[in-house]
Amino acid sequence: MRSIRSKVLISILLITVITATAITGIFYVKSAATIEENYISSNQQQNRQIIESLDQTTQEVYQVLVEASCDAVIKAKIKEYTAEKKDKTLIEIVSLLQNYNQRDTAISSFHLIIPDEQVLVTSEAYPKFKKVIERRSIEALIKETKDQAGPLLLNNLISGRRPHLAFAEPINDNGIVGYLCANIEERYLYYNYVSEMQNDTIKEVMLLDQNNEVITAGDDRQEEALARTVKVMKEKFKASDASLQDVRIDEETIYFYSRAPFSGCALYISVDREMVLGDLAKLRLYYLGILMIFLIIAGILASYLARLIYKPVQNLTRTVKRVSEGELSTRAQITSQDEMGDLAMEFNQMLNQIEILIKQLIEKEQLKKDAELEALQYQVTPHFMYNTLNSIKYAALIKGEKELADLIENFVELLQASISKKGAFLTVSEEVHILQNYVRLQEFRSNTAIKVIYEIEPAASNCLLPRLILQPIVENAILHGIDIKKGDSLILISAVVSGEKLEIEIKDNGRGMSEEQIRTLLNSQAKKTKGFTAVGIPNVRDRLALYYGEKSRLRYVSSDQGTTVMIYLPATYDEKE
Amino acid sequence: MSRRITSGILILALLLVLCGCKSTQAEAAPPELIIGVVAKSNATEYWMSVRSGMEAAAKRNGCRILFFAPDAEESAEAQEKLASALIRRRVDVLAVSPIDAGNEPAYLKEARKLGIPVISYDSAFESGEIAYIGIDNHLAGYQMAANLAKRLEYQGEIGIVSGELNQMCHRERVEGVKEYIETVPEMKITYIESGYSGAKMSGEKLAQLRREHPEVKGLVVTSAVTALGIIESFEAVGLSIVTIDVQEDVLYALKNKHIVGLVAQSGYDIGYETINYARDLKAGREKEKNIIIEAEFLTAENVEDYLEKHTQ
After folding, report:
1. Could you point out which of A265, A312, A503, B39 has its C-alpha 20 to 30 Å from the C-alpha of B259?
2. What is the pLDDT of residues A320-379, one digit of tens each?
3. Nearest residue to B95 (alpha-carbon basis) of B68, B113, B70, B129
4. Which residues are registered as beta bridge partners of B188?
């Protein structure tokens, strides 16, 4: 993780993996929910159709039953039997019931109970009737059917077989004279409404009566298993629930419950959720495959992108490293127009600037060295020269040539000042002393008195200035400015401290200089010349610039009345400043 | 740091919103309004159109109807049993077209006890306490008589062939006819033959009536099915017949001038309005007690327009 490239690569891959996984996960969850919702919706619709079809059948059965229970002929025959007790009458009733039985295929049989006579007449082929039905059985039937609408599970009073679904309707003829039941066989209901529901997806299916009692469960499962199913069903759905359609879902199973509005019969189905989402297992693999393909593509793309992003960074890094190793001429390659491109460009510009600065620094150092070397040239065998000159001075004194001895002393002092190693700076008073020696030597050389006036302010006399900075100017004034043959030639040297500045002025009343001469003098290159005055004005200019930079200034003002040279530099008293 | 936390929370919230859209529990369907309907019959075109109107309104309103009717319009006992069964079934509203309007059937008491609202349609209860949705049958009788009188130039004798007079609709129609005829001095009602509720009169009976009352030139028939039976008979020649109920064959009989006038009682409209009324009643929206549906009077002159309007 130390490389930016690996960071970028891992970041892209991480984002891709998280995004792709999240999208795939969400799609999977949503798909599962949609499949389940669609399954529930479709199943509810199917259940509703089945239960409505069943309800239509029960309505038709009930309609036939009501008509039969209102049949005047049947009522008359009941009355006749009650009066005469003839089997023939019962046979006639059987015939009438069979006619009604044929009206609807859902009706397996009619049972007419004449409670007062304890007789049961059927529409079946055998037995056509049964006498001496237990009174308690009849009473149980009356009790069960009273106040209850819709079909109920009633015990078969003839065969004693398991309960079947039946409607019961009283026959009124100035009071209840009988009860007529329209029976629907469990097998009829199973084959018409339940069997088609059974498939691999559906775990349990049951047809229930209005009290949630099982009419048919569709198979011959063990009673224990059926009891468990019924228990679960009763926990999930209450018979009194007003809703005609209901669905419950738990972790493993979806439970459907559809109730018929008229008969109150209900269809109960339980479905394994895993089976419903069976198709989703395939989809899951598909999603996983898609995810993997996308991740591989993302990996390749991420690698390419990381390289693309990293390339300029790598290029810049290498350039910086080479620069740090000293290859200042190296430049970063600009490969893009983005921020990295800008960075490389700025870096290159910075290198260019550094190169210029270094070049300037080298040039300055060279100049400084040249000046110092030039000064050193005067230190040739200084002791030998001092000793020799001192010997000459003492020889002159012995011979009584005091003036000559003084001149030699002046020259020695001037020579010492020029080649001394004691430091690059002198005080203004020291510099003036050198000037005085120099002027005396010039007077001796020319055999003429040179009038020089020194106006040094006490504050200025201790200020430091580069050694021999005034001598070349005074020399210039003596040699090229004033006419020493004339008696009125004058050189005025003044030094004042103004604020933080030392202002030195060397003024002569000589022939003056033209603008062109001043320009040439100030702009000419410092060069080595023979003689004591070889330092020259350009050297003065360069040394001022070297030591003080912009803080110093050398200015020439000239006219036919003379030349004034003004030097401005910071007023310092300590060499370290 | 806080920006990172905010971003993290936002992403988490987004994921939760996306994942949270899944419902883990299917919602139970809201209970439907179940309206029990008991008609007088389901055998004629009129009653079929009543049922069609009810089915259409039920579909539109999201209701469910349980429609029952005895085989014949005379079977009051069967009708009461069917109505009782629906009350025991705890329907939300019961709509009945009572065969026997005079007696208060047991199911009305039971309905009151259970708080189930009962309304009548097509034909009212005599007590007038039960809301009624249908045409003004008295006015219909009046209109039929007026039209027939005009045909007969306000003179002569007419007969009435009506359904069971214990049914309010037939009784009111007959009373409407009587009321009008009393206003025409030169006309009289020679006979009232009742008991033909949605049933055809036999040719023999008609021949007998023609023989016994040759001066009768016009008939008011209070049921279209009965009127259609009469005009099929040769014995009907020379009789001006007016009747009631919209059904296709009667409209064509009017167009072909086999009958002279028809009160256009639309079974479809009655059925439709009945279900709307039941829905509003159950929803607690106040309604007028009776909803009287307009019934146009059709003759050969305007039947084309009516057909055009209702078959578009």
Report:
1. B39
2. 999 888 888 888 888 888 888 888 899 899 999 998 999 999 998 888 877 776 665 555
3. B68
4. B157
Q: Concatenated DSSP letters for chain B? A: -HHHHHHHHHHHHHHHHHHTT--SSPPPPPPPEEEEEE-S-SSSHHHHHHHHHHHHHHHHHTEEEEEE--SSTT-HHHHHHHHHHHHHTT-SEEEE--S--SS--HHHHHHHHHT--EEEESS--TTS-SEEEE--HHHHHHHHHHHHHHHTTT-EEEEEE-S-TTSHHHHHHHHHHHHHHTT-TTEEEEEEE---SS-PPPHHHHHHHHHH-TTEEEEEES-HHHHHHHHHSGGGTT-EEEEE---HHHHHHHHTTSSSEEEE--HHHHHHHHHHHHHHHHTT----SEEEPP-EEE-TTTHHHHHHHH--
CA-wise closest residue to B267 among B232, B227, B223, B304: B223
3-class SS letters over B234-270: HHHCCCEEEEECCCHHHHHHHHCCCCCEEEECCHHHH
**CB nearest A33 (choices: B22, B29, B31):** B22
* ipTM confidence: 0.84
Between A264 and A283, the higher pLDDT residue: A264
Is residue A382 reached through a cis peptide bond, with omega within 30 degrees of 0 on the bond before it? no
Q: How crowded is residue A241: how many other Cβ atoms within 10 Å of its Cβ? A: 15
As given in the structure block, the two tokens for residue B194 are: 């009742």
Residues in chain B: 312
- The mean pLDDT value of chain B amounts to 87
Residues of chain A with C-beta less than 8 angstroms from the C-beta of B113: none
- Examine the pLDDT at B157 and tell me if it is beyond 80: yes
A244: nearest CA partner in chain B: B31
| C-alpha to C-alpha distances, A216 to A37, A182, A192, A392, B206, nearest whole angstrom | 28, 18, 11, 153, 56
Neighbouring residues of B52: CB distance < 8 A, sequence distance ≥ 6: B267, B268, B271
Distance CA(B127)–CA(B102), nearest Å, equals 7
Q: Which of B24, B64, B90 sits opposite A249 (nearest CB)?
A: B24
Asked if B66 and A245 come within 8 Å (Cβ–Cβ), the reply is: no
A67/B34 touch (CB, cutoff 8 Å), yes or no: no
Number of neighbouring beta carbons within 10 Å of residue B21: 11
Report CB contact under 8 Å: A30, B21: yes
Residues A523 and B92: their CA atoms lie apart, in Å, by 120
Distance CA B272, CA B56 (A): 7
- CA separation for the pair A488, A289 (Å, rounded): 113
User: Which positions in chain A touch B87 (Cβ < 8 Å)?
Assistant: 149
Q: Which of A24, A67, A174, A246 to probe the B interface (max B CBs under 10 A)?
A: A67
Q: Above 70 in pLDDT, residue A433?
A: yes
Q: How much is the pTM?
A: 0.66
SS3 A453: strand
In chain B, which among 46-105 make CB contacts under 8 A with chain A? 64, 66, 68, 70-71, 75, 77-78, 81-82, 85-90
Q: Which residues contact A233 (CB under 8 A, 6 or more apart)?
A: A206, A208, A212, A255, A257, A268, A270
B312 touches chain A (CB under 8 A): no
pLDDT at A577: 64
Q: Where are the beta strands (DSSP E) in A509-572?
A: 553-559, 562-570
CB A560 within 8 A of CB A508: no
pLDDT tens digits, one per residue of A303-328: 888 888 888 888 888 889 998 888 88
Q: Which residues contact A243 (CB under 8 A, 6 or more apart)?
A: A259, B28, B29, B30, B31
Q: Which of A467, A479, A384 is nearest to A432 (CA)?
A: A467
Nearest to A63 among B30, B34, B68 (CB): B68
